[in-house]
């Protein structure tokens, strides 16, 4: 990847002459965009997308805002190597060119001006996006031209037609353009965040296993690719890098079904999460191409007390379905209830959540593994004091499935428990379904944690923050929760509507919740106690109108709005822009029935000021007001197996994702 900076005026004539040599050596040929079409994210009154591909420099496309906008050229024939963007004025600041088909970044820079030419090398795609990341005002793009140029391509940048890319701009803007991408849409890696074709393929292709890349041939290279394509956390957990060590000591562990040492899948995971060395843990793409259940309790099935509790063998403990069949409990929920919630509901058994050490990532991308009954602890505690502190942990793209909720289960089967003053934790893009206890609890002073783009379905007690009023260590709890989907399905509303809560139940600590979606949560979503602080910003609450409890819909909605955030008097709480609507089962909100949540207690400041500038900028760039677009975006991206969110460089822009509208919310 080549990087271009602004050209000082004294060198303009020299560099301009060199650039003219490059352009004159090329035969641009016809503008392919004239044979295709265009679309985009928005358009101001009196403009159209087609104006950018009509060959007329007097007409233009203009978006409604100055950032987060897109104009795309499409259906122009596929293969090309050169793009020219013509802007009226000089409003554009940050921009990117993306392969719309794959999301791969082709080029990026600052400033466009009257004519910016970018040589990409030989590429092929059905649609190319110009992303306007920032501008001084809503820009005017006169033409988005596409050429399959012939002739020499040497330039002042030193790039070549064999893969180097170059760009020039009459406005003197700076750009960094990736090398040529293949028809699959990859681009070479770059210091500004570009993803190489080899990395793109490794991160997205289920047919290329984790160690099959000839280019990414070391653990460090593979783990860097996985870290780069995942992106970075925002908010309090923003420093979490997990198993990636920028210093070069990253280790990759691939969990397989045929371990050379004969270890079970669960034992391999247990070994990999122990200790504090950097370890990025993935699942073999081929071994886990089909749905596969993992249950960490199985590492204790050789224990005599566990076998006695189930009145069964080690083999029956490992395969509880075999046990259920032998005991006459069938294969459905009755089996799960009897095995997990009756026979194993004993605090004296040795089964506990395995503890994750520092510098670990468990990454479930491109696998169909799921965890049954219980998950992991990050750190350890005893009697309210830390006994093991972990830092720098990421859990992502994992699927957790409970065995049904049992109040005060003896084994405390949380899916993720951050405790023991552990910190710098990112819990991202996981799915939690009917968990026995929490999805992600925070206890004993754990702090600097971000939970983002997770999907929780019928989870009764989502996220306790501090388990005792008396533990002053919980004053250091800090969490950011954004773009999570908390869903009660319609078929469980009658049994769970009154009891799904603790989002969070918080004592002493601080939590910032913005841009989250709640579906069919009836009352008392959170509890704020012992001087804790919670800031809600632009969260969307929907209730299927089929569950309306009063004959007058306005009176019914008034009651729901009054009860969602009423348990806040024990601490500090502020809500800005968070609203509740009646909707249908598909989460299409009814704008005629909306209430703002106005409960308040004490004083809560601007918690985002505790974040780095990087986090604040990214949050601002992708912020959505509570409303239909936010609901649709979270529904499309939250949880394992759904679309890449904006954290990832592989993500499509928000407007594109919202426009697809193909993902149901429950």
Explain what you see.
- Among the domains are: about 1-195, Sandwich (Jelly Rolls), CATH 2.60.120; about 305-350, no CATH class.
- Helix 2 (about 195-205) packs across helix 3 (about 220-230) and helix 12 packs across helix 13.
- The chain contains 13 helices and 42 strands.
- Helix content is about 20%, strand content about 30%.
- The protein has a 10-stranded parallel β-sheet.
- By secondary structure, the protein is α/β, with parallel strands linked by helices.
- This is Pectate lyase.
How many individual β-strands?
A: 42
Query: Do you know the CATH topology of the domain at 2-194?
Result: Jelly Rolls
- Span from first to last CA? 43 Å
CATH architecture annotation of the domain at 2-194: Sandwich
Pfam families: Pectate_lyase_4
Keywords: Carbohydrate metabolism, Lyase, Polysaccharide degradation, Secreted, Signal
Protein name: Pectate lyase
Signal peptide: 1-25
Structure, briefly:
The protein has 666 residues and is an alpha/beta fold.
Which properties best describe this structure?
Jelly Rolls; disordered N terminus; ten-stranded mixed β-sheet; 666 residues; 13 helices; alpha/beta; ten-stranded parallel β-sheet
Helices and strands in order, then pairings?
Elements: E1 2-3, H1 9-25, E2 26-27, E3 37-40, E4 69-74, E5 79-88, E6 94-99, E7 105-110, E8 116-124, E9 127-132, E10 140-147, E11 150-151, E12 166-169, E13 174-177, H2 197-204, H3 219-230, E14 251-255, H4 265-273, E15 279-283, E16 292-294, H5 304-310, H6 314-318, H7 320-327, H8 333-343, E17 355-356, E18 360-363, E19 369-372, E20 376-378, E21 380-382, E22 385-388, E23 391-396, E24 399-401, E25 416-418, E26 423-428, E27 431-433, E28 440-442, E29 447-452, E30 455-457, E31 464-465, E32 478-482, E33 485-487, H9 493-496, E34 505-507, E35 510-514, E36 517-519, E37 527-529, E38 533-537, E39 540-544, H10 553-564, E40 572-576, E41 579-583, E42 589-596, H11 613-622, H12 628-637, H13 654-660
Parallel strand pairs: 14-15, 15-18, 16-19, 17-20, 18-23, 19-24, 20-25, 23-26, 24-27, 25-28, 26-29, 27-30, 29-32, 30-33, 31-34, 32-35, 33-36, 34-37, 35-38, 36-39, 38-40, 39-41
Antiparallel strand pairs: 1-13, 2-11, 3-4, 4-9, 5-8, 5-10, 6-7, 6-9, 7-13, 8-12, 21-22, 41-42
